[in-house]
């Protein structure tokens, strides 16, 4: 019985690992003001960047919060926002 449970847990873990490391099938996050893709895809197609590579972009949103987005270059050379993080606003850290 324990072996069956261990096998099932292992199968779930392996399936989740391959799902995360594979391609992103969703539409990603919706662009917000400050995103590279806000208002459409950039005109340049990032021709020299490898497909599937990722890069960060940090900006300040309309409320003054610092935002970091992670983009992945798709096979058609468009950008997909796959992660968005809001950094904490620390009033005492600003001059």
Task: Report on the architecture of this protein.
With 95 residues, the chain is of the alpha+beta class. It has a domain of 64 residues. The protein is 21% helix and 24% strand. It is built from one helix and three strands. The protein has a three-stranded antiparallel sheet, with no helix packed on it. Strand 1 and strand 2 form a beta hairpin. The longest helix has 20 residues. This is Secreted protein. Keywords: Signal.
Summarize the structure.
It contains one helix and three strands. It has 95 residues and is of the alpha+beta class. A hairpin with a 5-residue loop joins strand 2 and strand 3.
Radius of gyration: 19 Å
- Coarse shape: globular
Share in helix: 10-25%
Largest sheet, spatial ordering of strands: 1-2-3
Helix-strand topology string: HEEE
Mean pLDDT: 79
Largest sheet: 3 strands, antiparallel
Q: Show unreliable segments.
A: 12-22
Structural class: alpha+beta
Strand percent estimate = 15-25%
The tally of strands reads 3
Distance linking N and C termini: 62 Å
Number of helices: 1
Signal peptide: 1-21
Keywords: Signal
Protein name: Secreted protein
